[in-house]
TrEMBL record:
GO molecular function, one term: phosphatase activity
Signal peptide (residue range): none
Coiled-coil stretches noted in the UniProt entry, renumbered to this chain: none
The organism of origin for this protein: Ruegeria atlantica
The protein's name in its UniProt record: Phosphate regulon transcriptional regulatory protein PhoB
Species lineage: Bacteria, Pseudomonadati, Pseudomonadota, Alphaproteobacteria, Rhodobacterales
């Protein structure tokens, strides 16, 4: 029989979040004794004479605290505890089993079933009140944690929605950026220009392009905007307009002559024009590196400007290789900068590779960087028989194989490959 001493009473006691208590016992007398003490302490008390009745009550309106006898006919307190924990309750309830069983094995069974605490009969009021107070502290912490978890889940859901919207925008932005390079390879007479553009994210800060205002006249470029992501991509979109292959009247690398045709301006003048435009725009902190070259396809005469971009690699038909260019400052760093022109002649069978530092500054599996020597060897390993986009795809594949495992691309990778085959 359950007996509770009446030491310590009063309705002004603070039991935290515990307000509603369910007493489950097949003995009416035992329930009455427990209920009397609980009501004195200010609880709203419910009663059930069996586990079956109790589980029905808990399914619709779970209490904050359950005091259940272990030994009952039909559904035992242990089975009731298991069934209660199986309910889909949004709030956690504290469960105390009342038992005469004190063996460790029995206590372990109760804990496994989901009980939080035990009280050994006969009950003392002070101990019962202390156990309820301890349970109240645990429930206070648990519900505060649940509230914070709910706030976190809400915030994460808001972030997920925002992320999905940004991701959708970035996918569309990538399509727009890809439209700046409508074709990756194009023949100009017997010669050919091929391009590679591989951003390290949805969008990138590299840009490649080519244009020809007339027969035997060809311009192509490789650009790398500082930084990564949206800001750099917006700059490439702007530069794509400045160097448009479709709207020659907007292309700063061309000038209208005699209202009949467009002429390619000297590369160093193009670099200076772009530098002036960037410096005139206040609030823009981005700059970019560039190699821009124009070719007379009749004789292989190349005029080129290098503005802080990696040195182009000339692959000669006879097997010789040479890095070209004078270095130079990036565009958009300083006002009133002059740029130097580099000139050379290509022979039929010679090939010229422009590339971004996503190649040479790629982190390799051995901890080093690819650098110029590694790039040269990689280009030679591709062999003279690979042409156009096949050559560039092979270069990129070799680069990915040499990368540090699991690291991925740290920077955008881009290249322009010009194959000169004579007039």
């Amino acid at each position: 029989m359950t007996r509770v001493s009446q030491a310590g009473s009063g309705s002004d006691l603070d039991f935290g979040v515990i307000q509603k208590v369910l007493v489950v016992d097949d003995s009416r007398l035992q329930r009455r004794i427990l209920v009397a003490s609980l009501k004195k302490w200010g609880f709203d008390v419910l009663e059930a004479d069996s586990g079956d009745v109790a589980i029905e009550m808990c399914a619709s309106d779970p209490p904050d605290l359950i005091l259940s006898d272990w030994v009952m006919p039909g559904m035992s307190g242990l089975d009731f505890c298991k069934a209660f924990r199986a309910l889909d309750n949004k709030q956690y309830s504290y469960f105390i089993l009342l038992t005469s069983k004190s063996e460790k094995q029995e206590v372990a069974r109760g804990l496994d079933a989901g009980a939080d605490d035990f009280l050994i009969k006969p009950l003392e009021a002070d101990e019962l009140r202390a156990r309820i107070s301890a349970g109240a502290r645990i429930l206070d912490m648990q519900r505060e944690l649940s509230k914070k978890n709910l706030m976190i889940e809400t915030a994460l859901e808001e972030l997920r929605v925002a992320h999905d919207a940004i991701d959708k925008d970035l996918i569309q932005a990538r399509k727009i950026q890809e439209s700046l390079v409508p074709e990756l390879t194009r023949d100009f007479g017997k010669s050919r220009v091929s391009m590679l553009l591989k951003p390290c994210g949805h969008i990138g800060g590299d840009l490649v392009g080519m244009f020809s205002p007339g027969v035997n006249r060809l311009g192509f470029y490789s650009i790398d905007v500082s930084g990564h992501g949206i800001t750099s991509a917006m700059m490439t979109a702007r530069l794509g307009g400045y160097l448009s292959s479709n709207h020659f009247d907007q292309n700063v690398a061309m000038a209208r002559r005699f209202d009949k045709f467009y002429a390619l301006l000297p590369p160093e003048e193009v670099a200076e024009t772009l530098n002036s435009r960037l410096m005139a725009d206040t609030g823009i902190e981005e700059y970019f590196t560039m190699v821009y070259a124009i070719v007379d396809l009749r004789n292989g005469h190349v005029k080129m400007v290098q503005a802080g971009h990696p040195h182009p690699l000339l692959l000669c038909q006879d097997g010789r290789t040479e890095f070209l260019g004078e270095g130079g400052l990036p565009i958009g760093l300083l006002p009133d900068v002059t740029f130097q022109r580099t000139e050379f002649y290509m022979q039929p069978g010679d090939r010229l590779l422009l590339y971004s530092d996503g190649f040479t500054e790629c982190s390799l599996a051995d901890g080093g960087l690819l650098d110029e020597d590694g790039l040269r060897q990689m280009a030679l390993d591709c062999g003279p028989d690979r042409n156009g986009t096949e050559f560039l795809d092979d270069m990129f594949w070799r680069l990915t194989q040499a990368m540090a495992p699991g690291r991925g691309m740290d920077d955008d990778v881009s290249a322009v490959f010009f194959e000169y085959s004579g007039h």
